[in-house]
Amino acid sequence: MNRMIPPTQARKRYSQQLKLERWRVWFVIAGLLGLFAILLGRGLWLQVFNEEFLQGQGEARYARTLRLEANRGMITDRNGEPLAISTPVQSIWASPRSIALLPAGQTRPDDWEPESDKDPVPLSQDEVAKLARALGMPAADVVKKLGDPRRTNKGEVIKDKEGKPSRPDFVWLRRQMNPQDAKNVLALNIPGVYAQAEYRRYYPAGEIMAQIIGYTNIDGHGQEGLELARDKLLSGQTGSRTVIRDRRGYIVEDISTIVPPKDGETLALSIDRRIQYLAYRELNKAVSDFDAAGGSIVVLDARTGEILALANSPSYNPNSRAPIDPSKKRNRAITDLYEPGSTLKPLTIAAAMQAGTINAKTTFNTSPGALSMGGFTIKDTHNYGVLTPEGILVHSSNIGALKVALTMPRETQWNMLNAVGIGQRPGLGFPGESSGKLRPFKTWYPIEQGTMGYGYGLSVSLMQMAKAYQIFATDGIEHPVSLIKQPAPMPGKQVISPELAQTIRGYLEKVTQPGGTATRAQVVGYRVAGKTGTARKQSGGNYADKKYVGSFVGLAPVSNPRLIVAVMIDEPDIKKSIYGGAVAAPVFSSVVAGTLRLLGIPPDAPTNNILLPSPQDTKEDEAWVP
Question: Is the Cβ–Cβ distance between 212 and 229 less than 8 Å?
Fold first, then answer.
């Protein structure tokens, strides 16, 4: 028996059903709107906040930015002769990620097409062999470069998301090839192998200029010398070129404006290549003749402070990529220190005469050739008796120089040394410049002040000694020294009076004449002046018995000085000679003679001005220390 539902109850049920269906509709609509909001948010995140990453990932599939190398600036001597130039070369690189090495015997089908942009191009072993021959490399080396996975700094293999070894997108196959050889490599049309233009540094002067110029590494960055010191100036700015690659790895077109590179600037040095060659030749000969550990020479333009030559021996060939002995890289004339010995005596006498504590007629009794002081005995090799300042320099008396030093306050002596640059860097802007060692005068004991009078107890570089002798060549004016060609002489400072400078210059001329210690420094047709030095070297906190430094610092021509030349021979064979007058003065003579003629300096003496030395003339007292 069917029961009828009352109309009111039926209407109520229908109303409840409609409400349920509406709730479901709104639930579905809300869900759809939520999903749409999520998609919209994700899209905004990718398009707005993560745009660079996505573009980078996309471009990585088809685009590459190539670096356009700038031509490194040329280095020239003062006359424009090239000392360092960059020649165009080609470097071959590949993208291992774009290449798949096939097993031996398999070849790539002629109709091969990649299924996706990520598919690497198959490369057969025959193609690898052809590539290796064109590169001039063993095939195994090429396979290793193309097949090695990326690694961490610890050597661990880097894997991709799929757990497979990740391969690099860039690897050099061979750097700096001859352009024609690189062209032969590209002619093989091997996918994923490209060429990039670069420059290789070449040094025409080779070992003659090595320690001044330095060298660059294979990437063109300065490693030593002026190549390092002026790297930013010489490097210029690299350019760029963005290109599209097809699925086979070939470059098909440029997709952006090419940014051209900006070449480096030319650096003109004060060095004269002709004088540099002469100085290096004569220095090398002396180092060889006396079986020395090494040597250095500095040639200064007395009027401007410009360095005309700066050579060291032994040297190295900067054009070679073979490993270089670190000791040969040093620019000894600027970086190495030594005790100057008797070459410092003219500065001691100049300081005392400038201060007025002595004059040209002041006498000092050096008898009997020995002097006890502070528990030490200072000796001369001969009993020279009573000496004037001139006699002290001519005979190179240690006792005389010590007594001169003690006539003046410690501060006066220190001020003179400081004024000529002792204890200060020369200011060349050269890597490793040494300032030397000059202790504060307040710490000096009398014995130390005395030994400094004849060049012990302080240390200098050869460049500092050449710079210091400017005051005797330029009537008392000290100029800054420079390795860069100057358009005009740099301002100098007056250190001593012109009259005193001329007086000391006269004393130094006597040193090169018979009776002095530097007769072998004489030059035919020119008057020369200078001072010898022979100093024992320190070793392990004490002075070594058989290790000496022989040196000579001089100027020419005396009537109108144009050159200052400083020579140092390190550890000459004691069996041959150790004296500065024998090992260093002849180098000075040869270099000055050639340089004055190269510069066209007129003679200021007759051609028969050479006076033969006596056997005793090259021996000096400065070889002895307390």
Answer: no
Q: What is the mean pLDDT of residues 355-381?
A: 90
The answer to whether 624 and 526 have CB atoms below 8 angstroms apart is no
Are 577 and 290 in contact by the 8 Å Cβ rule? The answer is: yes
CB atoms inside a 10 Å sphere around CB 407: 18
- In whole angstroms, give the CA distance from residue 194 to residue 196: 7
Rounded alpha-carbon distances, angstroms, from residue 75 to 164, 225, 542: 50, 12, 43
Q: What is the mean pLDDT of the chain?
A: 85
User: Quick count: other Cβ atoms within 10 Å of Cβ 607?
Assistant: 9
**Nearest Cα residue to 301 out of 526, 480, 521:** 480
Residue 140: the pLDDT is: 85
- CA-CA distance, 313 to 238, in Å (whole number)? 36
Query: For the chain, what percent of residues have pLDDT higher than 90?
Result: 53
Is 237 a residue whose pLDDT tops 90?
no
3-state secondary structure of 444: coil
Pick the residue with more confidence: 265 or 158? 265
What is the spatial distance between Cα 462 and Cα 335, in angstroms, rounded to a whole number? 9
Which tokens sit at 437?
Answer: 């060692």
Q: Note the pLDDT tens digit of each residue in 249-258.
A: 555 555 556 7
Q: Beta strand pairing status for 82-94 and 193-202?
A: antiparallel
The three-state secondary structure class of 584 is coil
Taking every pair of Cα atoms in the chain, the longest distance, rounded to a whole number of angstroms, is 161
Coil/strand/helix, residue 8: helix
User: What distance in Å separates the CA atoms of residue 159 and residue 163, rounded to the nearest whole number?
Assistant: 5
Whole-number Å distance between alpha carbons of 286 and 283: 5
Structure tokens at 134: 């064109």
Alpha helices, H only, 171-263: 179-186, 210-213, 225-229, 231-235
446 vs 3: which has the higher pLDDT: 446
Q: Look at residue 150 and tell me whether its pLDDT is greater than 60.
A: yes
Task: Please give the residue that has the higher pLDDT: either 551 or 489.
Answer: 551
Q: Is 399 helix (H, G, I), strand (E, B) or coil?
A: helix
Spell out the residues 6+ positions from residue 386 whose beta carbon is closer than 8 angstroms to its own.
363, 364, 365, 366, 367
Active site residues: 342
Structure tokens at 107: 């070849």
Q: What is the mean pLDDT of residues 353-378?
A: 91
Domain with CATH 3.90.1310.10 in the chain: 65-268
In angstroms, the CA 355 to CA 64 distance is: 73
The single-letter DSSP state of residue 456 is: -
Q: Nearest to residue 147, comparing CAs of 109, 94, 90? A: 94
The answer to whether residues 535 and 256 touch, using CB atoms and an 8 Å cutoff, is: no
pLDDT level of residue 38 (50, 70, 90 thresholds): confident
Q: Boundaries of CATH 3.40.710.10 in the chain?
A: 273-316+332-623
Residue type, 533: G
Query: CATH for 273-316+332-623, among 2.30.300.10, 3.40.50.300, 3.40.710.10, 2.70.50.60?
Result: 3.40.710.10
**pLDDT of amino acid 51:** 63
Three-state secondary-structure class, residue 244: strand
The reply to whether CATH 3.90.1310.10 applies to domain 65-268 is: yes
